[in-house]
Amino acid sequence: MRAARPVLAALAVLACGTGARAAETRPPPGASSCTGCHAPGAAMGALEGRPEAEIVAALEAFRSGARPATIMNRIARGFDEAESRAIAAWFAGRGAR
Amino acid sequence: MFRVHSDEVDSGSSKECAAQRRPGDVSRPGGVGRSSRDASAPTRRALIGGAAAAVALARPARSGTPPRVVVVGAGFGGATAARALAAEGVDVTLVEASERYVACTGSNAVVVGLRGIEAQTFGYDALGRAGLRLVRASAEAVDPAAHRVRLGDGTVLPYDRLILSPGIEMRFDAVPGYDAGAAAVMPHAWKAGEQTVRLARQLAALPEGGTVVLAAPANPYRCPPGPYERASLIAHFLKARKPRAKLILLDAKDTFSKQKLFEAAWATLYPDVLEYVPLAAGGQVSEVDPAAMIVRTDFAEFKADVACIIPPQRAGRIAALSGCTDRSGWCPIDPATFESRLVPGIHVIGDAAIAGAMPKSAFSANAQGKVCAQAVTDLLAGRAPQEPKLINTCWSLVAPGYGISIVGVFRPADGLLADVPGAGGISPLDAPDAVRAQESAHAESWYRTITRDVFG
Question: Shortest CB distance from B423 goes to which of A28, A33, A78?
Fold first, then answer.
């Protein structure tokens, strides 16, 4: 996973069609706020290294209300599908720290 | 004594973690003069007064000279920004006057004896090892044209970009009778530390059947739900420990954060303990008399055994000294970069900033610190910053094990940070006890995570 990081990041950028250059390594909008709660050892769990599809599906389920939550339902509604995919790809590409 | 690791270099009277320190980084007082050390330094341009230097510094850093960022204030905002910049390989100096940080978030539990002040207290040792220079001094002046900060000991720090995260200072000119001396008798406890402990001791010594008066200010102020969490926990404490005692909550406004949740919980848990007096019912404090322990409004006079007066606030002192505050006392900023609207090259984050819909909270300051650090990194590299999105969550306890929350997602709109429509909001009004317990546990988990993220 770690070795594939740059490739994943590049793919993520292409897949999202942002038009950004492939060298984009900045966190996508919203991602840097996540780590205030999501960290290794936290009850909320770390996001780094989780599969992209898992994070995308979780955000979608929070957004629709299918997955019960205390606050993630309220947060997920602040991000559309493309933004959620970008955030998921970024965390997936960072590997577990 | 500020503890740093063994490679500390004493440059005059300021103490630095100097692992990355270069010769000529720090000039002595005097402003326009050059010390002999500076002559050979690669960064001397920043130490030369005059227009030429200002013009040079307005451009991205020249090749061969790593750009330098100075961050003032090592709270949730400044320490976060400094760490994020250091992680990007930026040359960062973090200026902080205090020996350790005492967190406000969670400190209402200290006020009522649910935890000790040590649980709120964090050293800076780990920050000093995070690849940045930590300077223990107060920032006394900023010369925005010459791009330099003068510290209390006369040291001058040049910068390419400056980030101010100075927090708040109390306005001791706002409530008649409530000055710094009055705060020793009627603590605000709105900056955590000695004030928090003082209020906790007063409450512990409250006589049976005594009266506590708590006064909340008008907006804007640090931690919008904070006064109501404090009222809740004091009411809980009185109910459990001080039979027949009363809490009178005087408010200089009529609406407040998580109001429906707080009021529903108060009606259930503390109907005979807590009396809420909003602005419309005469809740604004017009005067205090600390010698007589009297709190007055335009309509009534309250004799208090314990009085906690949370006065109006303004941005921390260096914000005004650097020209970054407007007439409100707070700092208007660009919502994408947090660069001051008033002073180019200076960014303001955390409680001191006017962040639109985003509240003054530790969570906000942490999120802003990361976004600002990224924007500063981009600007130094001559790259356009992204349009950010930021998240805030504030949990409050209305009783131990009973947590409620407010959430917001924010993005720049019309020059301010605005709520993303459809997102955010408060905990459900009809949630079962298990959800309240879960939110209480989440608040505790977040506190451990955020303080480790910032100070650990």
Answer: A78
